[in-house]
Specification:
- The structure is a single chain.
- This protein has 377 residues and is of the alpha/beta class.
- It folds into 3 domains: 1-77, Orthogonal Bundle (DNA polymerase, domain 1); 109-292, Rossmann fold, CATH 3.40.50.450; 322-376, Orthogonal Bundle (Arc Repressor Mutant, subunit A).
- Helix content is 41%, strand content 12%.
- It is built from 16 helices and 11 strands.
- It has helices spanning 9-18, 24-33, 38-43, 46-49, 57-64, 72-81, 131-146, 159-169, 191-200, 217-227, 242-252, 267-277, 286-292, 322-331, 339-346, 350-362; strands at 84-88, 107-112, 120-124, 150-153, 173-177, 202-205, 231-234, 256-259, 281-282, 366-368, 374-376.
- The strands form 2 sheets. It has a 9-stranded mixed β-sheet, with helices on both faces. It has a two-stranded antiparallel sheet with strand order 10-11.
- A hairpin with a 5-residue loop joins β10 (366-368) and β11 (374-376).
- α10 packs across α11 and α15 crosses α16 (350-362).
- The longest helix is centred in the middle third of the chain and has 16 residues, at 131-146.
- The chain is elongated, with a radius of gyration of 24 Å.
Length: 377
């Protein structure tokens, strides 16, 4: 068999990460045993490799014959085709807080902007949220994004999707952490959202191309979501939901855990209530998060916001008409009002109210509820 050119350290890390036979625990032990130098692992003899606990003949043989298992040129070509790169711990883009956790990924397949904004805040929750949960996730994400934070979530259905969309709608930055390879869109209906995030933020995963999501990959994804962020907000979750696993990771990693309260008779609120009972910070507005983390660098507000996480409306702000500004001011305190009430409070005729609300809906600033009332998004 022809001798393979010796890979660089980055290439060696990519090879190790792509070896399907190498589990995360064994990989961590190997990295510890060889002073976190991937090139040394690939160059080691079978006898040296088998000194590491958990490495037997099969794993040692795989490492010594890695060209039979990983086509390095093809792997790098896939990165190029996906407009992605493999970011290692020595790269400035690698999230700094992620390096501090017990088992940080040796590298991240990264698609999107060069470097994420700091600080990062995670927003997670159930895949089956209530309308209240979706609206709350959007508003918190939008408020944090406007304050200069990067909103991190897992691209899942429900709260994750609402968080990503809220950050994008606010013109801010968001990062999606996948539990599968970059070439697999899960859930498939989030393909457009995936593209928008990659264009305005970043999509990250530690899993090689072709790896599908499974019971093992989601908890691994969750530890990254928690580990790269200064704080984690749980919006809605059952007691045994995946978000509770993420919250546990965050607590173990020394991150601040926040939880949004909900109705006591809804299962989707029970996880959050358990977290609050156990010491999580109760969140009602964006400032609850910023006040709790104000001792950290980067948590100085960049714009004045009101208590709903929305920019304070003014007649000179943005492209709002005087009528639109009046309605937004009326709804900015969290009020939920019928069009007739809005008309009487801002002295507008019925036709003017309908037109104004329609324009605000098109600008994605207000939402019509199922009962015909309106609220600010």
């Amino acid at each position: 068999m022809p001798r393979h050119p010796e890979p660089s350290e980055r290439q060696a890390l990519l090879i190790l990460n792509a070896l399907p036979e190498l589990g995360p625990v064994t990989l961590r032990r190997l990295m510890d045993a060889f002073d976190h130098q991937a090139v040394r692992i690939l160059a080691a003899s079978p006898a040296e490799l088998k000194k590491v606990r958990g490495v037997g003949d099969a794993v040692a043989g795989t490492l010594k014959s890695w060209p039979d298992h990983v086509d390095l040129a093809a792997e790098e070509a896939r990165l190029t085709d996906a407009a992605a790169r493999f970011v290692t711990a020595g790269d400035p883009a690698y999230p700094p807080l992620l390096k501090e956790i017990y088992d940080p990924p040796i590298g991240l397949y990264w698609q999107g902007i060069e470097k994420l904004r700091e600080p990062c805040i995670a927003i997670v929750g159930t895949r089956r949220p209530t309308l209240y949960g979706q609206a709350t996730a959007r508003k918190l994400a939008g408020g944090l994004a406007r304050r200069g934070c990067c909103v991190v979530s897992g691209l899942a259905r429900g709260i994750d999707t609402a968080a990503h969309e809220g950050a994008l709608e606010a013109g801010g930055q968001t990062a999606a952490i996948l539990g599968c390879g970059l070439d697999i869109i899960y859930p498939p209906e989030n393909l457009d959202l995936y593209r928008r995030i990659a264009g305005n933020g970043a999509v990250l995963t530690e899993f090689r191309f072709g790896r599908r999501a499974d019971r093992q990959s989601f908890p691994m994804r969750n530890r990254i979501v928690a580990g790269m962020c200064s704080g984690l907000i749980v919006v809605e979750s059952g007691v045994h939901g995946g978000s509770m696993i993420t919250a546990r990771f965050a607590a173990e990693q020394g991150r601040t855990v926040f939880a949004v309260p909900g109705r006591i008779d809804q299962a989707a609120s029970q996880g959050c209530h358990h977290l609050i009972r156990d010491g999580a910070v109760l969140v009602q507005e964006v400032d609850d998060v910023l006040d709790e983390l104000q001792y950290l660098p980067g948590f100085q507000p960049s714009a004045k916001e009101n208590d709903r996480g929305m920019p304070a409306p003014s007649s000179s702000a943005g492209n709002l008409s005087p009528e639109e500004t009046a309605v937004m001011t009326l709804l900015a305190d969290g009020a939920i009002l019928h069009p007739d009430e809005i008309g009487s409070k801002v002295n507008l005729a019925g036709g003017q109210v309908s037109t104004t609300l329609m324009m605000l809906e098109l600008k994605r600033l207000v939402s019509r509820r199922i009962d015909g009332t309106f609220e600010a998004r």
